[in-house]
Amino acid sequence: MLSFFKTRHNCYCAFCKSPRRIYRRKNISLMNILGSALASVVIMFALWQQYDPRVMVAFVVCLAISEVFVKIRWRLSVVCRVCGFDPVLYLKAPEQAASKVKEQLDVRRQDPKYLLAKPLNLPAIPADKAKALQDKGKGRLVSRSI
Ligand SMILES: [Zn+2]
């Protein structure tokens, strides 16, 4: 029952398996709508000091701002902070997602702050499969070099 009210959700990264928390909501909730209504009433009294039909415009603008905010918050929380894996981008463009993970792992390799950190639990490729992939010229294997 309590988990229904939690805004964040515990899960694991699909790539490096590190534990993480992501925001549950992708869209605005009833609370955001009520907040937008309250904000637009406050704006109405601040601007016109009485009831004004233009409050509806302010309400729609507040709704749009909160929807954009909730969407951006969810989108940023979905990306793994440890390895940089982005599941949403992976569904659209797997190559771009792979290059982002490579960039993040290169940054991690060069940053001295991670020298003594726990190594990442990256997916391993069996040696014979890795050799076959490298023979095909598919590029450098990230998980072999970390
Ligand atoms: Zn990760």
What does this protein look like?
- The chain has 146 residues and is mainly alpha-helical.
- It folds into two domains: 1-78, no CATH class; 85-146, no CATH class.
- 54% of the residues lie in helices and 7% in strands.
- The protein has helices spanning 2-5, 30-48, 55-78, 87-92, 94-110, 127-135, and strands spanning 8-12, 19-23.
- Strands 1-2 form a two-stranded antiparallel ribbon.
- Strand 1 and strand 2 (19-23) form a beta hairpin.
- 11% of the residues are buried.
- The model has no long low-confidence stretch (mean pLDDT 86).
- Bound molecules: zinc ion.
Side-by-side strand order of the widest sheet: 1-2
Give the termini distance in whole angstroms: 42 Å
User: What is the 3D form?
Assistant: elongated
The number of distinct structural domains comes to 2
Average residue-wise pLDDT = 86
Helix and strand content put the structural class at mainly alpha
Largest sheet: 2 strands, antiparallel
How many helices? The count is 6
Please provide the count of β strands: 2
Small-molecule components bound: zinc ion
Poorly predicted runs of 5 or more residues: none
Order of helices and strands: HEEHHHHH
Strand content: 5-15%
Radius of gyration: 23 Å
What percent of residues adopt helix (DSSP H or I)?
Answer: 40-55%
Could you provide a short overview of the structure?
This protein has about 150 residues and is mainly alpha-helical. The protein has a two-stranded antiparallel ribbon with strand order 1-2.
Topology, element by element:
Blueprint: H1 2-5, E1 8-12, E2 19-23, H2 30-48, H3 55-78, H4 87-92, H5 94-110, H6 127-135
Antiparallel strand pairs: 1-2
Helix pairs in contact: 2-3
The structure holds zinc ion.
The site of zinc ion has 8 residues, from loops.
